[in-house]
Amino acid sequence: MVQAGGEPPREYPGDGMAAEGRTIAFYGRGGELFGVFLVNLCLTLVTLGIYHFWARVRVLRYLWGQTAFAGDRFAYHGTGKELWKGWLKAALIFGLPFFFLKNVGEFFAGNLPLQITAALLAYILVLVFIPIAMVNTRRYRLSRTSWRGIRFSFRGRVIDFIKLYLRGMLLSVITLGLYIPIFAARRHAFMVSHAYVGNQAWQFHGRGQELFSSFVRAILLFPFTLGLSWFWYTAAKRRYFWNHTALATARFQCTVTGGPLLLFTLGNLLLLLCTVGFAWPWVVVRNVQFALRYLTFVGDLDLASIRQDVQPASAIGEGFMSFLNFLDTGLDLG
Amino acid sequence: MPEPYTIRTTWEGYYLDGQSAVRHRAVVSLFSYGLVFSTEDGGSHSWPYADLRQTQGFHADEPVRLERGGDIPELLVVPEPAFLTALSQTAPQLATRAVRLRQRRRLWLRTSLAAIGAIVLVMALYLWGIPVLSALVASRIPLAWEERLGREVVAHIAPPEKQCTDPIRLRFLEAIITTLTGSLPEQPYTLRILVVDDATVNAFAAPGGYIVVFRGLLDLTGSAEELAGVLAHEVQHILQHHVTRLLLEHASTGLLLTALTGDVSGAMVFGLESARLLGTLQHRRQHEAEADVAGLQLLLAAAVDPSGMVTLFEHLHEEGQNAPRFLHYLSTHPNTTQRIATLKALAGQSSRQFRKLLPDYDWEDMYHICAAPHP
Fold this sequence. Notes:
The structure holds 2 protein chains of 2 kinds. Chain A is 52% helix and 12% strand. Chain A is an alpha+beta fold.
């Protein structure tokens, strides 16, 4: 269960011993986040939006700092300046060319082949940007996360994910969507299996094929349930992903189901609509509490074996492809 | 008998060396120059305050975390909130946020005041700031840019092959405009009128001085005075840069809404767009009201009978009850009955002598303006 509020328990069996069903605790409160949100709003308005990056850091720092495992809080080390520079780089290298390609059609009014080429290039640019952004965001966010002073890291190569992503998109189209759950599992596998806490790697043992029946069921029932069957697939996917995720010798266990997920999401929507978005901080806190309510950590985890292992960005070993990491010093989307 | 006041001098916490996830129980003592703590394995550490920074412990019940070092710092975590108070007394330069804990009782009041302040700020920006700033910027946009924008708009909606180019009748229309603008001071726009061969009952102004009238609307006017009302309204749209202002207001409203709602996802995007649209419609209504009043004043200044404008609007409104297509011109301009009432009141106030527009021209001849073959 989630411990909301109160001090973390002082009694621990001692590091390195088994703890059946250890939970991740979240102490955040909507009211406190609302305070952060208000200051962010005022400063963002006054600076005509520039403060947005620093505002984001304050929110993440609060959320990370209110989440605890085994009695210790997480910490977020990102900075507004890094996020701003990352955004600038992304805007210059992707935003501007994309904008140019999209609008260049006006200049080639009579030249159809050139217009088609421009549109195609724009589409390819987006298709390549998405995996690059996803990996760089992951690498940035994990490298700026720590627990007990040990930094997380992500060691997956961007080029591998681009290949995985493009291949997955192509197969999803060719199979008329049947490949989607497998694609989702392969993406998740990449994102999890290259993540590290210090020197300990995360593992993902799942294969998308096992999600297939639940996916097909959701699709078939989609028209009869007005789309609500999708919640059961989402819940099944979440359970599957967590139940096959492990860190060293310990595993996760997720028990969320479609019904509660549906009601919860509806609740969020209602809250946001009734308050014209002002209830957003409470929605964020609710989301974390909901996720953690169904998540436990099972098995031994020898904390002494987790050692600091900071990875400088350039050590990912991509050689000439290292420029693909240019965004990993400040991109944090979503 | 009162309890003796005990000064707490040691605190329990734990130490992390930054190299492994194992934490060591520590007993911390505070001194004037720094803190000293001993760990359960017998080690002793002395940390001067100058080397330390507090990175957690700003919120209620949050353990205090002190860091020492560079990229991979050593950590000292003390869960007890009273430690923060003691730290702030011994080393005020370090625990600057400790004061917040004492003011927690007043926090709700301050949060509510800040919330009200934020709402007031947002409303002020939306109702006053954005329109005023947009008007300021719009009036400084170079004429060449406005004309280019206007040309683009016209090229889309009134392409050359759909225009009625009867030169003689167009010259009559231009004469009406000249009469209307004769009373105006120097203005930079070259006002051009275009007629589109389309049964739509509508007219609009594009930036840079273009006025587009559809044949459908022209066919409905009974006299030059009635069309003059429409033209005066559209001229005012151009003179007051309404289209450019609307573009700026639309963009700024979008920015305001994004700032307001922070992270946007899913249903919020839809809600945002609706809110933005509502905002834009509101700005648009204000522009229409401005153009109505200023247009009628233009008629009066040019000694043109304003009752024509009122008659046309009433005619459009009546016809519109039966056939929606008549409402096109008015439907983008809501609150029709109120507009007609406003115009009537303004028109009624004046009792000047009016001159007849195009006295030697039979207005019914204008209905043939699109009869000639198009280029």
